[in-house]
Amino acid sequence: MSLPSPQPHGRLPDPGAELRTLRGIAESLGQLDCVREIDVTLRALESGTLRIAVLGQFKRGKSTLLNAILRRDLLPTGVLPLTSVATEIRDGDGELWVFRADGPPFRTAPESLAEYVTERRNPENVQHVDRVELKVPLPAWARDVVFRDTPGVGSIHESTTREASRLLSEVDAAIFVLSPDPPVSAVELAFLRAVSEHAAKFFFVLNKVDLVPLDELEALTDYLDRALRERAGFAQPTIYRVSARRALERHREALESAPGDSGLSQLVADLTGYLGRGRAAALRESAGRRAARYGRRLLGAVQLARTTFRTDHVVFVAAMDRLDRATHELREEQRAADAVLDADLARLISGLDPELDRFRAQEGAPIAVALERRLDGSRAVGGAHLVQEFDEAMREELLPRVAELRTSLERQLLTGLEAAGGRYVARTRALLGDVERTVRTVFRVEVPAIDDELDLAPTERYYPHAEGIYEATFAGQTMLLLPAAALRRRLRARLPTIVAERLDQQAGRVRSDLFERGQRTVSEFRVRMHARLDESALALRHAAAAGQEAASADPRTRAEWSDRLDRWEADLRPLLEANSPPAIVLPAEPGGPP
After folding, report:
1. Phi and psi at residue 323, to the nearest 5°
2. Assigned domain for 577 exists
3. Do 432 and 504 belong to one domain?
């Protein structure tokens, strides 16, 4: 077993030396995830390369924003979200490297990027791509920087959620992208609290501002500012207001920047300043943050190894058998908890139906009355003008009522999901009881708390729209040719049917939207919970086995191990937060605000 060379006690002033010491401890204790993360940090520190990740919930416009920042159409954009594949962009001569989990990397043309990173071409990452690296000429200010377009948080795909969490350990600075619908979710705030332990600098971008009326933009910005300060712990967040899509369109057409591009210009200016003057300090701060986090993680592993090192082998085997049984039972019971959560979701969706039925039954009459009034007051002579007036009136009467319904049902569903998630977490904690007791009484180490929040996933396909009578019937062209007087009579006669059809159509679309969002919410939540349980069990097993292996060695090796355990704990102790119990901390466990 390879052991690191002795180091002086206490916190090391050099982040590189500290990281190398931590790597030796992690390798000795079988904490392979931690070894990989430390290696990534060391390579970045030694090369002087800053890694800037574009983060945020899926469909916030992250890829479009990065294209706009670099003023090039590098990344594919569109309706469907990216898969679980991260795209790294760095300065180069124009080549694309594809790194696969099940084979050697290979080089291909940059134009084929979409084949590997888009949902359309690589659904659910069936090609097993780990990441892709795009090397293209970048502006002078962006050289020696790796930009990473990350998978979105909150996607329905389990691998995407896992990958987004894994990438947290490889972030030096972050561009966190928000957009108006919804402004910020509990999932995003939790993700921000997690990544704030890693990144030394944050740039917050409110994208898609072209969708927000000017009189609402200030209020929206103030709301985001309060949320970032009060719920994510950022003291003075700067929010750049950007329409990446419009800025990129103007660049493609070689048009001058419009006044609304000032947010993007300021963002690029601040990025340039940060990458110039503050690069060295940012690298040191980022490495120092990571070293502290790795140290807190490894202290729990050291203490677990110490316990198993001093434990009789027969007792150790019995304890591991008990832990294996408890873990197996936990996984079996967790599947039952998953089924209960699915049943809760089905019940919640069914619970929306009475409200949808009420909407259909009660809203038809007032809409029909209002439309009759508009028909009677119309002065249109031709059918085309009357159809236009009628459809505008229909939308004016229908869509605000649909928006009110949708908001009400969203609140109802979110309240139910929060309660269901609370029950799920409580059940998981109860199921963890035997595992926790085994670890605490035999190994004297605390299992990290299992906790999480559910927040209704953002809308993916729904948009406010109601078909007009021309769009909804094959006879639309005929209607346009009729005189207004004749068409008015026909519309009045069919008014109850037209209104009922539109109400039914809108209710169905709202239900479908909420059903899909509920499914995404539950799927992502369940993935996070399972991943934390599995990673916790693996970290415990490796650390315990390392201590027991040393205990079975020759007397000289045992004496060396005892000394090293003392030295490791003394080196790591200053990294532990005040009054924080040692724990086998999960690689993707959210941390506190900075």
Report:
1. -65, -40
2. no
3. yes
Whether 302 maps to a domain, the answer reads no
- Residue 204, helix vs strand vs coil: strand
- Which tokens go with 360? 């259909």
> How far is 346 from 147, CA to CA, in rounded Å?
41
pTM (2 d.p.): 0.58
Q: What is the pLDDT of residue 13?
A: 53
| Radius of gyration of the chain from its Cα atoms, rounded to whole angstroms | 29
Same-domain pairing of 316 and 383: yes
- Same domain for 96 and 164: yes
Which regions in the chain score pLDDT beneath 70?
Answer: 1-13, 78-84, 124, 152-170, 197-198, 254-261, 277-278, 434, 438, 442-455, 457-461, 463, 470-480, 575-594
Among residues 160, 139, 172, 164, the alpha carbon closest in space to that of 68 is found at 139
Contact between 401 and 363 under an 8 Å Cβ cutoff? The reply is: yes
Q: Range of 91's domain?
A: 49-284
Give the contacts of 271 (CB within 8 A, at least 6 positions apart). 52, 69, 141, 203
Residue 48 has what DSSP assignment? T
How many structural domains does the chain have? 2
Is 439 found in the same domain as 361? yes
What is the predicted pLDDT for the residue at 442?
A: 66
Tokens encoding 243: 């329409």
